[in-house]
Amino acid sequence: MQIRQALATDRDAIYDICVRTADFGNDGRHLYEDHELPGHMWAGAYLALEPRLAFVVADDEGVAGYVIGALDTMDFERRLESDWWPALRDCYPNPTGIARDLRSRDQQIHRSMHRPVLTPPEFIGEHPSHLHIDLLPRAQGRGVGTAMMTTLLNALRALDSPGVHLGVSPSNERAVAFYKHLKFTTLAEFGEHGLLMGLRL
Ligand SMILES: CC(C)(COP(=O)(O)OP(=O)(O)OC[C@H]1O[C@@H](n2cnc3c(N)ncnc32)[C@H](O)[C@@H]1OP(=O)(O)O)[C@@H](O)C(=O)NCCC(=O)NCCS
Is the pLDDT of residue 120 over 90? Predict the structure, then answer.
């Protein structure tokens, strides 16, 4: 398996991996009618807006995973607002009028495109960068994740980032164990909704 900088041509593979890991790290294709939505929500913007911090791992079968990040989360969220969400808002209507607990998973993402949840500055603190990592099953459990994280963390260090954070569901026990193994510590807990973890660089 080879780790390399992600290219614009990796977009479809990255979107595919995003939905195939969207159910707490497992295949989430049954959750979404539109399989592009998780990619729009959690992956595409990094490739488009922060390509220097987007890496993929590939083997003979093709791209098997990605790690993507943003150097400055607050600046990235501002750029999402100006350069990423507007085109998606034109394509996907805001599901106003549908009660929150009646919204489908697709509609929950449509809603988030129109009303994105911003990272509270108090949680960013000394960890202004953030990242996401997802590998297909064939790449998991053999050290590839660690190598991918090392690549991204080194790229962040080279850009003088003082620290990085990430969000993970406590139900994704494998991912939580993986981040702890990499010396990430818990910055904040939001019950079943998620765990914010961070690492000083
Ligand atoms: C989570 C993920 C990135 C880990 O990458 P990986 O390549 O599988 O992990 P590695 O092989 O590098 O494992 C490194 C260490 O993490 C921990 N770890 C990894 N998988 C684990 C598991 N299933 N249970 C417990 N600990 C685990 C171990 O400490 C392991 O060290 P060891 O192999 O010496 O025991 C990868 O499995 C993945 O992409 N999963 C699906 C998508 C996902 O959940 N992404 C995270 C969303 S927040």
Answer: no
- With b for 16 or more beta-carbon neighbours within 10 A and e for fewer, the 170-187 pattern comes to bebeebbebbeeeebeeb
CATH number at residue 143: 3.40.630.30
169-194 pLDDT per residue, tens: 999 999 999 999 999 999 999 877 79
- Separation CA 131–CA 50 (nearest Å): 11
Domain ranges, residue 153? 2-160
167 CA closest ligand 1 atom index: 48
Q: For 70-110, what is each residue's pLDDT tens digit?
A: 999 999 999 999 999 999 999 999 988 877 888 899 999 99
From ligand 1's centre to the CA of 111, what distance in Å?
A: 31
Count Cβ atoms within 10 A of the Cβ of residue 1 and give its class: 0-12 exposed, 13-18 middle, 19 or more buried: middle
What secondary structure letter does DSSP report for 129?
E
Total structural domains within the chain: 1
Q: How far is the CA of 125 from the centre of ligand 1 (A)?
A: 26
Spatial contact of 18 and 27, defined as CB atoms under 8 Å apart: no
